[in-house]
Structure formats: C-alpha cells, structure tokens
C-alpha cells in the first residue's frame, strides 16, 4: 500500500525514485500540515488534553508504510497521528477524533493519544510506553494461523527500549520467528530527558543482536531510506524469518507535548535540526531532481487545501455522543 | 458423565475449546510440551500441534501476545502460572485488553481468556499465596470468574473462552487434585455470569466463591447440626456479579456473611457488603460480617498459615455471631 | 506561612525531606534535571546534586531500585509519573516492597515512598485517567494516602517519607495548579493516618478523599443552602484507614454517602460501606450510597468524560436521596 | 570473605589453589548434603511446600561468594539455599526456616523459597522470576551514597533473562555504573522447558553488549572459574566501572522442584551430567593434586557431621510462633 494522499504529484522528477519521493513529500507534508493545524486547535482550546506531535518525524511513518501492504497491522505510540495518516486514515476522521467529535475514528473515545482505525490497518496508538510491542508480536502470531501472510509493525521511541515489555516482545518474536518489525523512532529524547544519558550505548539498533535478530540504523529523515530498510525487514518477516529492529534517526522539531517549554534543548539545536528535517531535505531533492518550483507549489497548495477542508468539516461535525457513553463495555 | 477432578475438568474444557473454536490458540510457560505444571494442559500439544505452545518467562509478552492475536481474529487462551505473577504485567490486561472494545466502540475486540490460579497452599511463600480477585473485579471491561467445583472448572472456563471479551478465570491450586465428581461435558456453553445457591436456607445468607466454598459448605453443615439453616451462595463470577441472587437471599434471611480467602480490607467481600447495604438495608437484622484473611502478608510455615487463613471454623463463628443478633 | 498551590506544596515537602533526612534519595522519569513534568521536583537536583537523578523509562527498575536502596539504608522517594504506569511494575510494590518487613520479622525494612498522580483531566485518554487507590489499599504492608489540599500535599508526603514502611502517595493532576493557600511548613512531621472532618454536620455523613474533596465541599454547600447539614470527612489515608472517625460520624448522622472518582465496583468506597454495615449498622437510617465513576472505561473527549465522571451534582443528588429516606 | 565452613581441610593439596579448592569442595559438599537432607525431610513431610534444590549447581554460589566481601549484598532466587550457606548462614537456622521453626532465619515466614538473612549479607531469595535484579541494582545504588564501598550481586536462572525486570535492571545499572554483578545460573531449563527453545541465541552472556557492559561465560561447575570471573566483575564494580554479566554454565541434577517428574530430560542426560558435576570434578582434582583419600574422607565426614547436627538441632526446635503471626506488618 502506498501512502494514501488525495494529491498526486503533478510533475514529479523523472524516474521511479523521483515519483516515489514526490509522493512521499506530499504524504509528509500532509502530516505536517495536519499537525500544525492540531497545534493551532490545541492553542485555541478546540482540541483539549495532551497532544504529542510528530513534527520533524514524518519520514518514518511515510517511509515505513510504503513498505507494507494493506493486510498488515500497524501499531504506534501516542505520537501516532502521522502513522494513522500514512495508513490512509482520512484527515477529517482524525481531526474529528482529536476534536472529540462523533465523526472521529473512535467517536472521541480515543483522543489524540489512544485511537485506532483498524479498517485502515492502523491497530492503534498506545499511551503506555512499550505497551504496544508485545501486542504487535501477537498480531504477527495471529498471521501464523490465518493464512493471511500478513505481518505487523510496531513503532516506538528510543526511550521505550528501556521498558521491560519491549524486551519481552523482542525475545518472544525472535524465539518464534514472528513476522513483526520493530521500528525505533529515535528522536534522542525520552520526554524531557536526553536518552543518551539513560543508556550506556545509544546505538540501540545493536540491541537486536541480543535477541539474535538483525538490526539496522537508518536516516529517519529520509523516507526512502526508511522504506528500504522496512521493506527488507518486511521481506524477511513475510518469509517466516522473524523480526528485525529498524532504528530510524530523527529529530522532533517541537516539544514532547504541546506546551512543553523545551528547557532541555541545547542552544541552536532546533534551528540546526530544521535545516535537515525531512520536508526541507525532500523539497530540495525534488527541486534538484528537476521538479519545477511551480509544480511543487501546486502540490503544496493541494495538500493544504485538503487539510483545510478536512479541518473545517471536522470542526463543523456534531460533538461526541454522550447518550451512548456507557455502550461497548462488553459484547 | 465422566468423573473428573478439578484439574481434569479444566483440561477437558481446554480440549473442547480448542476443538470447537478453530480460532483458539493456547500458550503459556511450561504449558504445551510439559502439559502445565499442574497438568491442566496435558495432551493439548499432541492433539492440536502448533496451536499450543510454550513461552519464555515473559508475562507481558504472553498477555500482549494474546491481545494482539485476539484483535487479529484469534481466540487466545493463555496461562499465567500464579496470580502473583500477573503483577509483573498487569498493564497488559488493565490498560490494554480491557480498553480494546470500549475505546474502539466495538470495532476491535479482545476475546482472550487468561487462566491463572491463586491462594495459600501449605508451605507456599508470600509471593505465591495471594488471592487477588478484587484487583481484577475493579477493572471494568474484564470478565472475572472463580470456579469452585469440577463442573464449574469446566463450564466457567468454556463460558469465558466463548465470551468475546477479555476474561480472567482464577482457579485455586488446592482444588486441582480434589475429589472426582461427575462432570457433564456435552452441555451447551452458557454465557458468563450467574451465582448458584449451593444450599438453600432460611436463617442466614453466606456468600463465597472459589476455594472457600469447601469451608463454607462445612460451616453450613455445622450450623445445620446446630439448628441454623444457612443459604449458601457460590457467587462464581465477580464480573458480572449476580447481585440479584444475593439480594433476594438476604431479603429472605435478613443476615449476611461473606467469606473469601483474600485479605479482608479491599477484598471483593466489601463490594458485596456495600451492595447489600444499599439495596437491602432494610432487610438486615444483623451487621454484615466478612470473613477473610486478616490484613497481613502471608507466612510460609504451615503452622503460621493456619493461624491466619480462615476456614470452616472462622466462617461458622461468623455465622453464629450473625444469627445470635436478636431480630 | 507561605502561600502555596498543591504542586508547590509537594515541592516544598520534597525539599524539606531531602534536607531533614540525609539518607533520602529521589529519582524518577524526568524528575531531576527537568524538575518533573508537573514541576513537583523543581530545584531538587540543583540543591541536592547526585542524591536526585533522572531514570530510564523503566518502572520496575525505579521501584526495585528504591527497594534495594531502602533495605541498604537509604530512604528513597520515587515518582511513578501516572498511576496507570504502576501497572507495568506492580510486582515490585506488592510482591516485593510490601513483604520486606513482615517476612524478615522486621530485620529488613523498606522505608520508601512512591509519589504518583491519577485521575481524569479533560481530554486525558483511557490509559492516563484511572483512579487505582483501591488496588494499593488491598495490599497489606503498604501505606496509602491521597492528599486533597496543599497543606495535606505537604504534610502527608512528609509523613509518608518519614514512615519506615513503603508508602504510596497518590496525588491528582487536577489539583496541582489549583489555588494557593497558606501552608504551614515548619510543623513537626505527623505519623501517617487520621481522617479530617472538613465540615461538621448533623444530617448525613459524606466520606471522600483526594480530588473529590472539592466536589464534596460544593455539594455540602449546596445541601446547606437547602437546609441539610452535611458532615464532610476527608479520609486522607486509606491505609491505615481511620474507621473510628467515620463510625462516630455515622452514629451521629445515621446516613452515609461515600464519593470517589474511582469506578464504583471494587472501589475503596465499598470497604468504607462494608465497615459501617458491620460496625454501625444500627445507626443507619438510610441505605449507604456510593458515588463514583460508573463501571466503564474512560473516554478522552471532555464531553464524554463529563457524562461519566461524577462531581458535585452527583454527590448532591446522592446526599438528597439519602436524607430523603424517612427516619 | 571466604566461604564459611566449620571444616578446615586437614591436608589439602599444596599451594594456594589447592587450599582454595579444598575449601570450596568442603563448601560445595556442605550445600549438597544440606540439600539432600532437605529432600529427605520433604519426602518425610517434615518440610512442606515447594522446594527448589541447587544440586549440581553448588559451584556457583561457592565460587561467587569467595570473590565478595562481607560488606557486599547478595540476592538470589528461590533456588537459594546454596547461596545462603555460601554466605555463612548457619545450616541449623536454614533447616529451621524450611522446617517452619521459630529458630529459622525468618522464624518460618520465608520458607524455602523466600527467606533472607541480611546479617550474613544474604539479602534474600526471590520467588518472582527476575524480581530480585532491580532490587540488587538498588542495593548497589545505596553504596553510592553511604561510603561503604559495597557492591551487590544478584543471581538468577537463564530463563529469567527473558523477563522485563531483568532487562530494566541491566540497563539501569549500566547507565549509572552501578556496582552490581549479574550472575546467570544457566542450567538450561526454565522449569520444565529447555531455554534454548525460548531464545534465538542461547549464549546469554552476549546480551551484556546490548547494555554496553562486559559479559563473560564460564564453567559454572568450576568454583575457581566462577570465583575468578566474579572477582574480575567485583573489581570493576568496586572501581565504579559498573555492572558485569557472568553467565555460569551448569546442570541441575535433580528436578526443578522436589516432585518434578523430569519428563523433559533426554535419555542419559542426567547420568552424563553426574560425571561432570562440581563435586565429582573437585574431588578428582583434589586427589589428582595430591590430597590423600583419607584426608578427603575426613573432610567429608566432618561436613556430614555438621549437617547432621544442624538438622537434628533444627528438628528439635520449637515450631514457629503463632502468637506473633500478626506482628511486623508495619513499623
Ligand atoms: C510505562 C510508561 N512510563 C512512562 C510514561 C510517560 N511517558 C510518556 S512518553 C515518554 C517518553 C517516551 O520517550 P520515547 O520512547 O523516546 O518516545 P518519544 O516520546 O520520544 O517519541 C514517557 C516517559 C508512559 N506513558 N508509560
Ligand atoms: C514472574 C514469574 N513468572 C513465572 C514464575 C514461575 N517460575 C518459577 S521458576 C521458573 C523457571 C525459572 O527458570 P530459570 O530462570 O532458568 O531458573 P532455574 O529455576 O532454572 O534456576 C518459572 C517459570 C515465577 N516464579 N515468576
Ligand atoms: Mg524519543
Ligand atoms: Mg534455568
């Protein structure tokens, strides 16, 4: 399944790589604009509660999802809007969820940090650090029996690598050759704490060796690099050869959550990161590759129009339905 | 009807579930090839092959693995060897499994069953002796049952497995190798829920569940000899809890004793008492009395355990105290 | 007396504890250099250096680390950022910490304090919203407190830290940045335990704890306007629980309402009801009523949360229902 | 602290290694005879409840303890009788504990699987797999502040390496250079399940690299090899250089617990193991090294006499005190 976007690049650079990059640029931009709009909605008090944006990290979901198929199951963390969008969840239904609308993917029950949209292969966010890793292994286990040939992918932050459940999931999947891909979104911070101070060796991909499985580190700001690494892992998973750890190196350009004062940043850190962030890099590559500034602008405009429309529709929707709030506790 | 002891009844139910639910899979520590440390899963691996397997000592992976498989169409049956071990991975059942259906508005479901066992057995240490049903019963979204007889070990496990929601079935080690009893093994699978009046009576209601049923029966018999008629209710399921049966009984007897092996404070007996103090207060002719482990950690030496763990004697004393209150 | 809001009172208590107990150390996720995600631990690292540090996202290591340090003479104060996260490592507090003193006959002790916070805040998701005090209060060997005011945030935390047993102090996010109040910061450290009558009354007893105190006060005020005099008890500590104060009050008022944010079934309100239904049954002139979150998972949308989470209105309704019962 | 034993080898082989081996032989034999006696007591119904014997694994506690000092803190699993004896806990108090006697180290409250004797540096067994690892890290943490120079050691089975808490403890200790030694007692089985089937790579010492700390695998049937590896780890720990993983390869000659039917054994497995078990090897080395059969016999007799006396005294002691059963819940 390629990343879903309503915008098909008008005049992408020549060749399949160029076309792929243009598509991925559009998909990343779509996430970026979504997140930016959410940030505004949060500040405006339209979205309420803790929100974790993936601004700067968009290449990971976009690249990873491009290497998967529709039948596969994907599990993310609370920082999951980008993953859902990459899976094809309509922006309107996602806006609706965060706005607490009836039209939200979970009718407002999940919220920013814990929604799911399984019909798009998005098996959900998880707000417990590491909580999704064993569940993803279980999804891969299911594929053992159902003949679907499906695999699973779970994404989590580098800080989650210190959580017991992730360790257990890695070993469980390795021992039984489960078709699951463990994607580490390494943005260098565990909330407000530099993760390098919480581990001895911050090359976390190397921990794969402890479980006897392959591990790789790639540029998490390059969607094609992520796609290729995940594609390799996916091939292995689908062939019954078990799990892979894919560590993707990135930077979060905003706070851990909206409102984070970011006192932990080094001088100039975010400014430097903004120079190498995925949209900047992809935009330059597209222009370098021969895409015209006009075509690019057209692409941007069309993505922005889509997001605007989705936001407007979501804002206009009915609030979550309080009359059914007690339903669906049990079958 | 085959004559089965409790653990063989569990085993029979597991066989039937694997047979009737092609989507069922089953796993746990020492579960498959060894057949379970208490033989509960004997023969499953031979019969059902790869659908039954052993796991690493990784409770979070077992429970999380069950959830992931469940949301993708399987019906996992897993074992947590001791309820105490649940505590290394409670997140997976409370924060994860219990939320699946509700948060997704029913788009996802987690039809999984966790079998575990609990309680004090002579010599068992403090980390292998707790009765923790109250924790699970405080988690909306879970089904919680404690079978007390071979028939219920069979029936309730099947009901839990057939239910399309996460269920925790808590067995008790002390029951596994108890007496055999005829067990009906070809009835339909009942939905979860429903208490059983194990003994009808007029003077006082005794509510219990799990392994305490045996002691409760003895106590009721003692009291019968003393001319007191005890209505003994085996709650069976704490979630859903059959309040109506208890209320109806208390309305008749006017007196209520609740007995469980778990610590008294915060035990599920409190919930039963609270419901009755709300729904049937005017029927009460005596204070509600709870019998349970006094609030203590649990020592290993059998002589010390006997000094703490309540049994027929403590229940009988509570019944006597309750019926002695003038109407 | 400084004017402090709740979280600053927590902060002041932490500073005093680190100062007065040279054996105290303090750690948790984002606790030291960032000063805590809610600023509770601000300034500690600067002032106490290496005695205060940040940890990996490893709750079992945090809690186990605290136990190991405690049995070797330290007095650890640790933070579990949300009570929901406790569930990934509950073993360490239930199977490990709570057993230390009892099993060793007092030869080892675990004088550690875990601070955590809980509850629903507008928009908080199902995995960040639970109220789990009943789980801890069901574990003998633990001290469990839920401060509701800035003064108690200060006093109770110090009491817990000074106690030579494992303590869990459960704060509530919604209180952190509430109004400032004068907080006495140089009194002696009290032993743990003891409820407070927040408002004396004659007609009905209202027992609550933690963040529900605010709603309870409003409800009591509403009822006062209606001519009903509510005796409002802030239980403060669930373990040890001050039953005597509640019993004495119910003996006076004859009516009891219990309110907490936790789910009703299996909540600690059940324990309070059960104790009264045993110790003060004859004083009751109305059924005991509990107010709590109906047994449900917790949705994120504020509008849905408001439809579930009880507040002053629900408490007032329960009080009215209770006093309406003819004597 | 050398392993405590009341028996000083009469005529050990020449040289310090010979003397050490004779001492360790005596210490191992003392554990063996203790365990054998416990087995009898269990079958006789004098000891009640689950009992996990360390028969075949004695070289690990004996060797490891020989590399530690009195100020250090040791944490074991339920298979901990040998560790306690190696720490110098009197056999009589240990028999008493398992027999549920007032004279037991915990007055019968701990039992076989969860006792402690901190005055001997034995901070206790743990019956939750992996539960002791973070606690040991905490004990090492305490030493940071108290100027004691103490370190901690935690032993657990190879199966415990798949438990989340062990992972968290390893990383926590590694990140903060805590002076704790993680000793894996690799007896190849997780209860009734071969551990090699539960991991992809059963060289568990290699997992140390995931945490950036040293790992080593040694012959766990050779007390001197264990001692040397632990001594190296201890030096590192005491120097503030952090934790080490020491994987000790051994074989359990008996069931996981008394009563285990051992259906999981391969044909001839235990018989082969009995040829290379620590007492057989040490005995041969002593004789080879020039110790006379008579001296050896004397040594054996004296150990057995000690164990007999301890058992008899424990059996004669008062049962646990039921009148105080509610005490010590709180300070
Ligand atoms: C078990 C658990 N512990 C702590 C938290 C609080 N928490 C939420 S996000 C986070 C940091 C996670 O860092 P990382 O895994 O690197 O992911 P990132 O947020 O950087 O994407 C923490 C500590 C939690 N949600 N769950
Ligand atoms: C958390 C937890 N899960 C499961 C168990 C049950 N259990 C006790 S011992 C054991 C096997 C441990 O194997 P290993 O770590 O290799 O140690 P060994 O017994 O071989 O010394 C298991 C699964 C437990 N005590 N704790
Ligand atoms: Mg991160
Ligand atoms: Mg082993």
From TrEMBL, chains A, D:
Keyword terms: Oxidoreductase, Thiamine pyrophosphate
Gene3D superfamilies given in the database record: 3.40.50.970
Top-level taxon of the source organism: Bacteria
InterPro entries the UniProt entry points to: DH_E1, PDH_E1_Alpha_Subunit, THDP-binding
Domain Dehydrogenase E1 component: 28-317
Keyword match Ribonucleoprotein: no
Matches recorded under SUPFAM superfamilies: Thiamin diphosphate-binding fold (THDP-binding)
Obligatory cofactor(s): thiamine diphosphate
Family annotation (Pfam families): E1_dh
Protein name (database record): Thiamine pyrophosphate-dependent dehydrogenase E1 component subunit alpha
Organism: Conexibacter stalactiti
Source taxonomy: Bacteria, Bacillati, Actinomycetota, Thermoleophilia, Solirubrobacterales
Automatic annotation (TrEMBL), chains B, C:
Alphabetically ordered keywords of this record: Oxidoreductase, Thiamine pyrophosphate
The protein's required cofactors: thiamine diphosphate
Record carries keyword Heme: no
Keyword Ribonucleoprotein: no
InterPro entries xrefs: THDP-binding, Transketo_C/PFOR_II, Transketolase-like_Pyr-bd, Transketolase_C
Stretches assigned to the Transketolase-like pyrimidine-binding domain: 4-178
Annotated protein name in UniProt: Transketolase C-terminal domain-containing protein
Organism: Conexibacter stalactiti
């Amino acid at each position: 399944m390629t990343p879903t976007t309503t915008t098909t690049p008008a005049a992408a650079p020549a060749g399949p790589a160029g076309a792929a990059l243009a598509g991925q640029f559009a998909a990343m931009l779509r996430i970026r604009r979504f997140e930016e709009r959410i940030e505004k909605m949060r500040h405006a008090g339209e979205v309420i509660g803790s929100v974790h944006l993936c601004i700067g990290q968009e290449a990971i979901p976009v690249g990873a999802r491009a290497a998967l198929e529709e039948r596969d199951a994907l599990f993310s963390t609370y920082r999951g809007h980008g993953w859902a969008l990459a899976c094809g969840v309509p922006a309107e239904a996602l806006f609706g969820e965060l706005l607490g609308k009836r039209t939200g993917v979970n009718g407002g029950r999940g919220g920013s940090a814990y929604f799911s949209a399984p019909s798009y292969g998005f098996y959900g966010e998880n707000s417990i650090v590491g909580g999704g890793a064993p569940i993803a292994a279980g999804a891969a286990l299911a594929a053992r029996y159902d003949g679907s040939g499906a695999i699973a992918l779970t994404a989590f932050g580098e800080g989650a690598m210190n959580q017991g459940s992730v360790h257990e999931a890695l070993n469980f999947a390795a021992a039984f050759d489960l078709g699951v891909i463990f994607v580490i979104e390494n943005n260098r911070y565990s909330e407000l704490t530099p993760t390098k101070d919480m581990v001895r060796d911050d090359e976390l991909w190397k921990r794969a060796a402890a479980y006897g499985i392959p591990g790789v580190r790639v540029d998490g700001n390059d969607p094609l690099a992520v796609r290729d690494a995940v594609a390799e892992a996916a091939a292995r998973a689908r062939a019954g050869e078990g799990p892979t750890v894919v560590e993707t190196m990135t930077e979060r350009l905003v706070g851990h959550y909206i409102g984070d004062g970011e006192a932990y940043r080094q001088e100039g850190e975010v400014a430097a990161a903004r120079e190498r962030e995925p949209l900047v890099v992809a935009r330059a590559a597209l222009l370098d590759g021969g895409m015209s500034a006009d075509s690019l602008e057209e692409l941007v405009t069309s993505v922005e129009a889509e997001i605007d429309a989705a936001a407007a529709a979501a804002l206009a929707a009915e609030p979550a339905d309080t009359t059914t709030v007690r339903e669906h506790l049990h079958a | 009807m085959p004559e089965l002891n409790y653990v063989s009844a569990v085993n029979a139910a597991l066989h039937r579930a694997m047979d009737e639910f092609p989507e069922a899979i089953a796993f746990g520590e020492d579960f498959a090839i060894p057949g379970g440390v208490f033989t509960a899963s004997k023969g499953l691996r031979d019969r059902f092959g790869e659908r039954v397997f052993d796991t690493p000592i990784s409770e979070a992976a077992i429970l999380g693995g069950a959830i992931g498989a469940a949301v993708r169409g399987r019906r996992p049956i897993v074992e947590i060897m001791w309820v105490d071990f649940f505590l290394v991975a409670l997140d997976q059942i409370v924060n994860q499994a219990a939320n699946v259906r509700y948060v997704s508005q029913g788009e996802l479901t987690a039809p999984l069953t966790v079998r575990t066992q609990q309680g004090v057995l002579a010599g068992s240490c403090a980390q292998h002796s707790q009765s923790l049903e109250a924790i699970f019963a405080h988690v909306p979204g879970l089904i919680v049952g404690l079978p007390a007889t071979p028939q219920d070990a069979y029936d309730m496990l099947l009901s839990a497995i057939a239910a399309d929601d996460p269920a925790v079935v808590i067995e008790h080690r002390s029951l596994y190798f108890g007496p055999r009893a005829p067990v009906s093994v070809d009835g339909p699978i009942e939905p979860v829920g429903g208490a059983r009046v194990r003994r009808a009576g007029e003077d006082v209601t005794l509510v219990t569940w799990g392994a305490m049923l045996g002691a409760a029966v003895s106590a009721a018999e003692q009291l019968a000899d003393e001319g007191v008629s005890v209505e003994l209710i085996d709650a069976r399921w704490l979630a859903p809890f059959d309040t109506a049966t208890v209320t109806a009984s208390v309305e008749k007897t006017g007196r209520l004793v609740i007995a469980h092996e778990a610590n008294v404070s915060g035990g599920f007996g409190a919930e039963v008492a609270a419901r009755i103090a709300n729904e049937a207060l005017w029927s009460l002719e005596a204070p509600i009395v709870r019998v349970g482990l006094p609030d203590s950690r649990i020592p290993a030496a059998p002589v010390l355990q006997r000094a703490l763990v309540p049994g027929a004697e403590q229940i009988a004393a509570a019944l006597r105290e309750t019926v002695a209150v003038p109407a």
